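Entry 14. Ran structure prediction on the chain below.
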Amino acid sequence: MPVHVKRRRGIPQTNAAKFRYRAQRLMKLLEIEDKELSILLTDDSEMTELNRSFRKRNRTTDVLAFSQLEGDRGDLHQEILGDVVICVPQAKRQAKRQGLSLSQELTVLLVHGTLHLLGHEHVGAGRRAAADMRREQNYLVAILDGQTCR
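Output, structure tokens:
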């Protein structure tokens, strides 16, 4: 289960090994160990550009997910799950507001983005779908943070 973590220049060194390990544990919990996941830790500027290009929103956001299993060529490389892009400065701001550590918020965003790669939706998908995604996200984050076991 290859997990690639890349950080842009200027992004503080987070514990990449620990983050990669959490991503691998998440993939095991989701039973997608046979997939490949790429994670990019970036800044507000790049995230704004990606959000503008792909979602037509001219502002930063916390996480974007780019599935390789969707679209016209989604069946070409079934082993590649996709890319999760996380904006570290936005994660820091959110962590501070919510009283979380940066590591905890990065875990939340990793789980959130990965669930999107697997087809979970919360915006425009109805209350039930949004609640189901939130429940699954909270459950997985709790496991990864060591607060529960499966």
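The chain has a mean pLDDT of 88. Will compare against last week's run tomorrow.
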